Amino acid sequence: MRKERIDELTTEFMRKCRKSGYRITPQRMAIYRELLKDEGHPSIDEILAAVRNFLPNVSFDTVYRNLISFFEAGLIDSVEVYGGPRRFEPILDPHHHFRCTVCGRLVDFHSFYYDSLSVPDEIKREFNVEKIRITLEGVCKSCK
Amino acid sequence: MRKERIDELTTEFMRKCRKSGYRITPQRMAIYRELLKDEGHPSIDEILAAVRNFLPNVSFDTVYRNLISFFEAGLIDSVEVYGGPRRFEPILDPHHHFRCTVCGRLVDFHSFYYDSLSVPDEIKREFNVEKIRITLEGVCKSCK
DNA sequence: CTTTTTGCAAAGCGTTTGCATTGAA
DNA sequence: TTCAATGCAAACGCTTTGCAAAAAG
Fold first, then answer.
1. Element (H, E) at A48
2. What is the pLDDT of residue B11?
């Protein structure tokens, strides 16, 4: 990602933080920045390691609590990979995931076809659907 | 589910077990039977409790190991609800899930539209997709 | 008889919480 | 100066493993 884009998203993030009543701390800024820099789906531990390059005393706990808070406030997204630790990603554009059941690798992909899926009427009637999660599962080339 | 249907599925299950090289034990039969009887998506602990009504000395461990084995052999299905314990269900017909993000309730629904979804070509080229998981997320009536 | 399965117990791993201290506003 | 955020440390919940005894084939 271009540096300008990162700065832009970071500014936007700070604005949203203030709106949600979150104070701006160096830890929070670093957590969000490292999440943006990571191209994958970093776990709490991975983000912690990255943040510690800049703020060596940050605790697991701070990273944990903040990622959860950010997610709950809708500031970032959470990818739930069963069995492994919780993973996170910045909210960029809509996408879906392929997961290799052998190596556990998680791959992003885009699909307008999937993006535009509708919700069956009988579900709409009974539930307030906010999100459609589609995960393809199978085996990736290197594991085959 | 009708008793005859349960017996039929149980016989089928035993046949598959033998084919997979699994020995038939009272524990295994009870585990599968209780899984069939449960209309929801029981966790290991829930199945354990049910099984213990018949076999009081069964350990968590036996239920755990067997459910995992059954799943890996394709004898039953696994529902992965992040944050909570792993859940299981017998393989009956294809269906999808709605999850309430407030109370955590997991609801089955059927949809031919979702059943017949195809996999994008660029994914097909790179991965062997075995399964499409669709989970709708939102809020159910009682939580609204 | 052989080999799998079981039950037990302990360890593992990621998550979650309580509390005193620190620091943002 | 106030209240939220941090760091620490411990507890927690569910999963996973090693091993000796029991049971299936």
1. helix A44-52
2. 94
